[in-house]
């Protein structure tokens, strides 16, 4: 009877204790501060609730089915447990705080590819250096943006439905008149490969060296360049002349004949074959289509003169400039 009573007393004394003997580590003892009794089963200690007031070292796996309380709190959904250093209790911290403090609010180098599926806003200078490229596959909104390269504004290509310039400062420009800096609005070239043209009349007739432009502004200045070959035979009774017409208006300076930009003289001993190249500025003062045509004539009716007699290529270029 006494032995049985002693065993019962000893059993009651160990309700708050669980001991496991590890042949390698020795004895591990966990004491709970509640009435919960630890259970040892197949080498695993099961505890419903435990408060650790000092150090706790686990050399194996810790599995919990409920909350982990750190510094009096179980944290919020998605929190991470962050160490505060030796001798201090860890604290729960939001993942957004970690990202803001360590990713978004600091300077970082991204070595991998990143894809942004939502709106990305840059509130300060954004640089793409070295051989890197910035690829945008959808719409890009550039509110007040300016592109600089080597102190110059650079736009490789732009497609806009409406474009308004309120002020512009250009220090160098291919075409400057007085204090006005002109911008190139349009440029086109036509190559005349139609072959030789001949005339025997003393009035101007059109060649196939022609081009049409519709000015974007009535105040624009149109630069026209044309070239070709003007021909008259040696001993011919006629000289040959070439000029440029805007629609039905001869643009050669006057007031008298021959009103031409180029001439082939029949008085030379050999065949007179003249390369004709002219550049001039015209002010059509219209936004309707304008056709510029090279025309030629002789000064002695009945005698043939030619434009591009050996099937040379005629060329005519127009450029629209405006400020």
- CATH topology of the largest domain, which one? Jelly Rolls
Shape: rod-shaped
Briefly note the structural class of the backbone. Answer: mainly beta
Topology order in helix (H) and strand (E) letters: HEEEEEEHEEEEEEEEEEEEEEE
Task: Output mean pLDDT.
Answer: 74
Domain count: 3
CATH class of the largest domain: Mainly Beta
State the assembly state of the protein chains.
Answer: single chain
Number of helices: 2
- Determine Rg (CA atoms, Å): 47 Å
CATH architecture of the largest domain: Sandwich
Largest sheet: 6 strands, antiparallel
Q: End-to-end span in angstroms? A: 119 Å
Strand content: 25-35%
**Helix amount, in percent?**
under 10%
Q: What are the segments in which pLDDT stays under 50 over at least 5 consecutive residues? A: 1-29, 31-35, 170-174
The count of DSSP E runs of length 2 or more, i.e. the number of strands, is 21
How would you summarize this macromolecular structure in one to three sentences?
This protein has 323 residues and is mainly β. It contains 2 helices and 21 strands.
């Amino acid at each position: 009877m006494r032995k049985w009573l002693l065993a019962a007393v000893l059993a009651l004394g160990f309700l708050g204790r669980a001991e496991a003997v590890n042949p390698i580590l020795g004895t591990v003892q966990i004491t709970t501060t509640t009435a919960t009794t630890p259970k040892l089963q197949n080498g695993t200690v099961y505890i419903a609730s435990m408060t650790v007031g000092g150090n706790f070292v686990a050399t194996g796996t810790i599995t919990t089915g409920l909350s982990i309380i750190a510094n009096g709190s179980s944290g919020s959904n998605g929190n991470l447990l962050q160490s505060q250093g030796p001798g201090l209790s860890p604290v729960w911290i939001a993942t957004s705080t970690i990202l803001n403090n360590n990713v978004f609010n600091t300077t970082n180098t991204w070595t991998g590819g990143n894809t942004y599926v939502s709106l990305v806003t840059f509130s300060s200078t954004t640089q793409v250096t070295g051989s890197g490229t910035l690829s945008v596959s959808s719409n890009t909104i550039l509110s007040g943006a300016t592109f600089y390269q080597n102190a110059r504004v650079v736009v490789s290509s732009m497609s806009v439905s409406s474009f308004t310039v309120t002020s512009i400062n250009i220090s160098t420009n291919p075409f400057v008149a007085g204090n006005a800096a002109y911008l190139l609005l349009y440029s086109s070239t036509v190559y005349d490969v139609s072959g030789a043209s001949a005339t025997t009349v003393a009035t101007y007739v059109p060649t196939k060296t022609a081009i049409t432009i519709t000015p974007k502004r009535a105040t624009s200045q149109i630069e026209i360049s044309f070239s070709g070959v003007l021909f008259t035979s040696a001993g011919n009774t006629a000289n040959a002349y070439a000029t440029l017409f805007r629609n039905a208006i001869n643009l050669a300076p006057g007031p008298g004949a021959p009103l031409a930009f180029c001439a082939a003289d029949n008085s030379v001993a050999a065949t007179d074959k003249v390369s004709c190249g002219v550049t001039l500025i015209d002010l059509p003062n219209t936004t309707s289509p304008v056709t510029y045509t090279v025309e030629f004539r002789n000064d002695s009716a009945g005698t043939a003169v030619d434009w591009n007699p050996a099937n040379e290529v005629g060329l005519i270029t127009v450029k629209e400039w405006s400020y």
